[in-house]
Amino acid sequence: MVFVVPLFSKMSDQKLIMNMIKITFPDGSIREYEVGTTPMQIAESISPRLAKEVLAAGVDGEIFDLQRPLFSDASVKLYKWEDPEGKYAYWHSSAHLMAEALEELYPGIKFGIGPAIEQGFYYDVDPGTAIIKEEDLPRIEECMRRLVAKEEPIVRRDISKADALRMFQEKNDEYKVELISELADGTITLYTQGNFTDLCRGPHLPNTGLIKAVKLLNVAGAYWRGDEKRKQLTRIYGITFPKKKMLDEYLQMLEEAKKRDHRKIGKELELFTFSQNVGAGLPLWLPRGTQLRLKLEDFLKRIQKHFGYQQVMSPHIGNKKLYVTSGHYAKYGADSFRPITTPQEGEEFMLKPMNCPHHCEIYKAIPHSYRDLPVRLAEFGTVYRYEQSGELHGLTRVRGFTQDDAHLFCRPDQIKEEFCKVMDIIFIIFKALDFKNFEAQISLRDKVNREKYIGSEENWEKAERAIIEACQEKGLPAVIEYGEAAFYGPKLDFMVKDALGRKWQLGTIQVDYNLPERFELEYTGEDNRKHRPVMIHRAPFGSMERFIAVLIEHTAGKFPLWLTPDQVVILPISERFNEYAYKVARQLNEADIRVQVDDRNEKIGRKIRDNELKRVPYMLIVGEQEEQNEEVSVRKQGEGDRGTVKLTTFAGQICGEVDAMVNAWQADLTETSAE
Ligand SMILES: [Zn+2]
Ligand SMILES: [Zn+2]
Predict the structure, then answer these.
(1) Cα 244 to ligand 1 centroid, rounded to whole Å
(2) Residue 41 above 80 pLDDT?
(3) Is residue 335 part of a domain?
(4) How does it assemble (predicted)?
(5) Which of 120, 504, 659, 669 has its CA 20 to 30 A from that of 370?
(6) pLDDT tier for residue 19 given thresholds of 50, 70 and 90
C-alpha cells in the first residue's frame, strides 16, 4: 500500500502554528525551544555527553520518556543513572525487556505487574501450564541479551479504554484486563518494543540497546494483587546495569550480603530463634541476643535520661475503644489481629498495635502547666501487627516487636528544640555503632491540596519550618519531599547506609496534631487558659528487632566490645588448667566483664578457630606459666597475639575500653555545648 502524503500543505500548516516554548532548568536558567522538542533533543542541545547519559526527564514534576514531545513551557530536569528516577526508568524498561523475552520463550504467557523496585525489578507472570524455575533464568537472560542487541525502540502510544480492553481480551490476559477495567478512559497508554506491547504508564528508555548488563536473580511465588485467595503467579526478580563492571560489583555485594544475613549470623551466634510452636513472625530472644538487646536498651535509656525523658510502662493489650478514639481502629482495624473478648462482659480488647494511645492516657492522668512541658514519656513498648505470612522476614518483618518509643508533649514553640535534641540522641547512637553514612528525609504537606491536613495553617507552618531549621542547625543532609507528610503532621525520617552501601530506613520523628485533639490533651498556659500540646512521636531505632538485624548485617556480627554478648572467652590449653580458667572467669565476671570458658577437650588451635568464628573480641589462653604468674595470654579478634599480661591489668584495660565507648557521647556533648 502506498500512502500519498500531502507534503507541502502539511508543512505550511505546521509552519503557521510553529512557535517557541520556554524550558526552565533546575539551576533557574531558561532556554527557548521549538514546540514539540523532546527532552532528548534538549539534552543533545546541552551536550552530546549528557545526551548519552540521560535516561528520563522530569517535566513539571511528572516523569517523561525522553522521546515524548513538549508542547508548552515547562520546568525540565534530566535524569541520569545516578538519579533514582533514572534508575526507575532503566529498571522498569528492563522489566519490559524480560517480559518480551518471556513472551518469546513461553508463548501465551500472561502478565500481572512488573515494576521497578529499590534494587532492580520484577515481573509477576502466569506461564499457564509451564513452570519457570531458577534453572531457566540463564536461558531467559540469553534471550534478553539477543533483544538488547537489536536496539529496539520503545514506543509510547495513547489508547482508548475500549481498544485496550479489546486488545488484552484477544490476548486472553485476564490480569491486564482487570487492571485496565479500573483505569479511567483517556489516561491509558501502551508501550511497544519489537513484538511486545504492554499496558504501562511509563516512563521508559528510548530503546532496549541501553540495557548493557543483565542478571535474573530468583523466582518466587506471589499472589495476584497480594491477595491469598487469588491465583499464585510466578515472580521473577532481576537487575540490570549500564556497565558490566557495575553488575559484577553488585553480584559481589550480594555474595557478601548472604554471608552477613542476620538470620544466618543470628543462628551462628545464638542470638534469636523462631519456633513454629510459638508462631511465625514472633521472635524468641536467646540469652546471648537478650544480653545484646538489653545493653542497647540500657545505652539508650541512659542517653534519654540525660535528655529529660521519663520511663513509663503500659500493658500489651488495650480496650478496643481506646483505638476507636485514637482513630487506629478505623484505619488499621480491618487489617490487624482480631479483638480478644472477655468471657463474661463481652468486652473487646486489641493487641497493642502502637504505644501512643496508652501514652496519651498517661499524660492525661496528671494535670500539666506550660512550665512542665515538654513531657517526654519513653517506653520500650512491644506492639503487635498482623503481617501476611509470606511477608515475614527474619527480624526485619515480624508480627510482634518492641519499639524504642517515646512521645514528647510540648508547646508549639518547642518543636524545633525537641527535634534538635532527638537528632542529638540519634547521632550519639549512630556514632556509637559506627554508622558513618546517614541522611534524612523531611516530609511536608502537598504544595496544593491542603484540605486533607488537620491542624491550623499557622501550626503547620511553624512545625515545617522548625524541622527544616533543626536539620540546618545540626548540619544534617536532608531532602524535602512535598506531599509525603501524614495528614496529622510533618515528619523526619532517617536513612542509614550500611557497610555494604545498602540503605535502611530507621528512626522517625513525627509531629502529631491529631492525637492531642482526639484525646483532648491539655496544659494550662501562662494566660491561665487551657491549650493543646503538640505531640511528637519518635523512635531512633524504629524497632529493636529490625535495628538489631541491620546492626548484625552492618557489622557482620562483629559487635563493638561494649555491646557484644561475650566479650572474653578463656581457652585453657589442656584440661589441667580448667580450674585456673574458671578462676580467671570468676574474677572478670566480678569486674562486670562478660566471659565464657571453652573447656572442651579440644586442641588449642581448634578452640581458637571456633571462637574466631563466634566473633568474640578477646581470647585468653591459659596454661602452666599463666597460672603460676596470675597472667593471661591475650589474642584480639582480627589482630592476633598481643602477648602476656597480668590478669588484673587485662581486666582494667577492658573496663577502660568499654567505659570510653559508652561514655564518649558525654564528652562530645560538653564539647559542642562549650563551642
Ligand atoms: Zn511498564
Ligand atoms: Zn507514637
Answers:
(1) 24
(2) yes
(3) no
(4) Homodimer.
(5) 669
(6) confident
